[in-house]
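quick q for whoever's on today - can somebody do inverse folding on this one?? i tried earlier but teh output was garbage lol. tokens:
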């Protein structure tokens, strides 16, 4: 019985790693595709204006995130005309007839520094993660997680960016566990007028 539990957890770990790696690969491919038009253009300061305008204008962004603290999957971000930004992340996938996984999380960001091609911010967020080989039971021992930490976002084109976050992630359960897990993100910014 104990051997079966260990084997099932190894399989779960491998499957979780596969999903995260596929998400990271998708983020990388989207970043390369989004950067292609900007590589042929002059990368002047006027071309990379989104970070400088964030403090005075509203922006929306959509993209992909891979992380253990504030989730993986699709991302939507709202940046009001201030130093704050608010984000939700989530995904639902099925991996066979009874296997499913989903993640739902929220994140707040406070901008520390901005320049024409990057911004540095602090992030804090929390999420709930579900992974199951059955239809109802969550196989993760610590599905609720929260994190806080520094982040760097680089605008490699006029409206597209890659971000790396390093939250100190707290796994809540019978016993608290704390780890520094990095998160990666691709975002595309736009304005709604």
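ok took a stab at it. sequence:
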């Amino acid at each position: 019985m104990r051997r079966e539990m260990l084997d099932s957890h190894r399989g779960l770990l491998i499957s979780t790693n596969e999903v995260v790696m596929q998400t990271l690969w998708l983020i990388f491919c989207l970043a390369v595709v989004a950067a292609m038009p900007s590589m042929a253009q002059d990368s002047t300061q006027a071309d990379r204006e989104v970070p400088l305008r964030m403090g005075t204008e509203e922006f929306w962004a959509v993209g992909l995130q891979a992380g253990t603290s504030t989730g993986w999957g699709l991302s939507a971000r709202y940046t009001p005309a201030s130093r704050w930004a608010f984000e939700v992340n989530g995904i639902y996938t099925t991996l066979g007839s009874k296997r499913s996984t989903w993640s739902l999380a929220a994140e707040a960001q406070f901008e520390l520094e901005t320049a024409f091609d990057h911004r540095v911010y602090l992030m804090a967020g929390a999420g709930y993660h579900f992974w199951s080989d059955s239809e109802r039971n969550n196989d993760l021992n610590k599905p609720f997680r929260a994190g806080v930490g520094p982040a760097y976002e680089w605008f490699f084109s006029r409206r597209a960016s890659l971000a790396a976050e390093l939250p100190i992630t707290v796994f809540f359960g019978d016993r608290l566990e704390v780890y520094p897990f990095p998160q990666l993100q691709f975002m595309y910014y736009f304005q709604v007028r």
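fwiw The radius of gyration is 18 Å. also Residues 2-190 form a domain with the Porin fold (CATH 2.40.160.20). so keep that in mind when u check it
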